[in-house]
Specification:
Elements: H1 5-20, H2 26-53, H3 58-79, H4 81-89, H5 97-110, H6 116-123, H7 128-149
Helix pairs in contact: 2-3, 3-5, 5-6
Length: 151
């Protein structure tokens, strides 16, 4: 009978933890992520439309639009506003291109006291680095497979 007691204690403990654990507001989080992510994308569309109104084609305006959106993400991260948006909107602030800028600037700001080389330079791509590396490797592999199938 003593061999079963620890097992019962674990089950009781797990049950109590599940009862006391705060439940996240899934619907609220989903709606906020959708709305905020959508608003960031609307801002991107407005920037794209602005560049097109200057006479650029959609293809030509894509580069400057991406640059403006990355700048805005980095700028608002520097001011501390993007982190507040992330706390409020969750995934809605992470998905668009501004979230990529935030993932580069945040670690750089956090480690700036360690200097430009060992702090900012070494830590800037802590979060975004793996995405860049694996994205590049995947693109090369897909391109190689595509090229080999066309032979």
């Amino acid at each position: 009978m003593t061999a079963q007691a620890p097992n019962l204690d674990k089950k009781l403990y797990y049950w109590r933890v599940q009862q006391k654990k705060p439940q996240p507001p899934v619907l609220r989080n989903t709606v906020l992520a959708f709305v905020v992510g959508g608003l960031i994308c609307v801002l991107g569309q407005a920037v794209l439309t602005f560049f097109q109104s200057l006479g650029m084609s959609a293809k030509e305006a894509a580069g400057p639009t991406a640059s403006v959106m990355v700048f805005l993400g980095a700028f608002f991260t520097g001011l501390g506003w993007y982190d507040e948006l992330g706390k409020f909107a969750g995934a809605g602030s992470v998905v668009p291109i501004t979230g990529f800028a935030n993932s580069i600037v945040s670690p750089a700001m956090e480690f700036k006291r360690e200097g430009f080389i060992l702090g900012v330079g070494a830590r800037m791509f802590v979060v975004a680095g793996p995405v860049l590396v694996y994205g590049t490797v995947t693109a090369v592999l897909v391109g190689l497979i595509y090229w080999l199938t066309k032979l």
